[in-house]
Design goal:
alpha/beta; about 40% helix; binds glycinamide ribonucleotide; Rossmann fold; 7 strands; seven-stranded mixed β-sheet
Length: about 200
């Protein structure tokens, strides 16, 4: 059994879809070599975040993290290793991932970004800030990017992208809804494929 940790500090709709996906894998699939995996930990830095109620409802342990220890301590590497975490998924997590953590999980940390990187990424580019920038630039298309996490914001190798139209009457909220649908459709499947490849 592989153990996935999700880092999230928002509503947690992606976390919910990922949890559901691994719980609902058909028995034959989940018995396939390397296919068996579960979300065994939610990591959060924001009191009151929606993802915390999801973790409680789904009976998944939460590890609350503090800025000082994350950025100046061991970045919780020991705790993650103790909990036998194999793969880390960032799903609406806004802090930069410290080098210590990147090095401890090489090509085993992925992020989802709500735009077509390399455009509209970097510090401060999250959620509706991204969608507002896409609209202000008059883009006709946006989408999602799933990528490996390295030492810089939104910079690691791209694993997967999917696109959707930007409509002339879109607002950041209406575009966000379309982007969320794309994320929910693709993110769990991409994670499953990558987790199968983890040795
Ligand atoms: C998602 O749209 C994700 O792409 C975005 O935060 C949202 C979280 O939604 N992440 C970023 O903007 C990272 N730069 P959720 O809490 O409902 O899963």
């Amino acid at each position: 059994m592989k153990h996935i940790a999700i880092f999230a500090s928002g509503a947690g709709s992606n976390a919910q879809k990922i949890i559901d996906h691994f719980r609902n894998l058909s028995p034959s699939l989940s018995k396939g070599e390397g296919a068996s995996a579960e979300v065994s930990l939610i990591i959060c830095n924001k009191p009151g975040a929606g993802v915390l109620s999801i973790a409680e409802k789904e009976d998944i342990p939460v590890m609350f993290i503090e800025k000082e220890k994350f950025f100046r301590g061991n970045a919780y590497v020991n705790e993650l290793k103790e909990k036998q975490i194999d793969f880390i998924v960032l799903a609406g997590f806004l802090w930069k991932i410290p080098d210590t953590l990147v090095r401890a999980f090489p090509r085993r940390i992925i992020n989802i970004h709500p735009a077509l990187l390399p455009k509209y990424g970097g510090k401060g580019m999250y959620g509706n800030n991204v969608h507002a920038a896409v609209l202000a630039a008059g883009e006709k298309e946006s989408g999602i990017t799933i990528h490996y996490v390295d030492e810089q914001y939104d910079n690691g190798d791209i694993i997967f992208q999917a696109t959707c139209p930007v409509l002339s009457d879109d607002t950041p909220d209406s575009l966000a809804r379309r982007i969320h649908q794309l994320e929910h459709e693709h993110f769990p499947k991409v994670i499953e494929k990558l987790v199968r490849e983890v040795k």
